[in-house]
Amino acid sequence: MNIARFVAYGLFAAATLPAYGGSFVGIAGDRDGQAMASVVMSLKPIGRTAPATPPEEIVVSQQDLAFKPYISVIRIGSSVVFANRDKVEHHIKSFSSSKPFEIAVHKPGDTPAPIRFEKEGAVVAYCILHDWMRAYVYVADTPWFALTAAATGIAKIENLPPGDYEATAWHPDLGQYKPPLVQKVTITATGSTEATFKFEFKPRAVRQAPKSGGSARTS
């Protein structure tokens, strides 16, 4: 994932919220107890509405015959620009029930109009011309979310008001139809609350372009 972009948005969103002392640490592991990267952790308050934050617009580029970042996390109402920074044409389509869309064949250097996401859940985008290319957009109905680190499988969310929350953990291998893992957690006014999520599978390797570049369509 484009960590700098993700962190920048996290800091921007946090700056629009009041300061609190509570924090959450989510730990993700596979069926063998190994740390899992690329798990989206999110916290939704129970019995109250999550505070509003301004929508944003992020970029998911097509570059080196891959989507970058592979996983993006945005809040409902935000938008994604699927910009072609590659040397070949691409054709993007999403069959996701929460956000079906299609960006017809576009040439290198093209920047199609942004796609706005208004429903919670996971959205998978494909390149029809290069079948190994996948991009995942996780749309959260909360300003509190984070991705687990590759080495540790840990995600930390800070600046949380005290109260009860629904904590969810989603991995791309769950796709757009299988629900995330869910736990109820209680955040205290100060200190940290920890939750561990165990997935009953080993994560698949991210598909890569064939060494030959596959059936890349040039303009």
Task: Please give the largest β-sheet.
Answer: 5 strands, mixed
SSE-based structural type:
mainly beta
Spatial order of strands in the largest sheet: 5-11-10-7-8
The overall strand count is 16
Q: Report the end-to-end length measured between terminal Cα atoms.
A: 28 Å
Q: Tell me the fraction of residues in β-strands, as a range.
A: 35-45%
Radius of gyration: 18 Å
Low-confidence stretches: 1-12, 215-219
Give the overall form: globular
Helical amount: under 10%
Overall mean pLDDT: 90
Q: Encode the helix/strand succession as letters.
A: HEEEEEEEEEEEEEEEE
The total of helices stands at 1
Explain what the structure shows:
This protein is mainly beta. 6% of the residues lie in helices and 44% in strands. The chain is built from one helix and 16 strands. The longest helix has 13 residues, at 3-15. The chain is globular and about 50 Å long. The model is unreliable at 1-12 and 215-219 (pLDDT under 50).
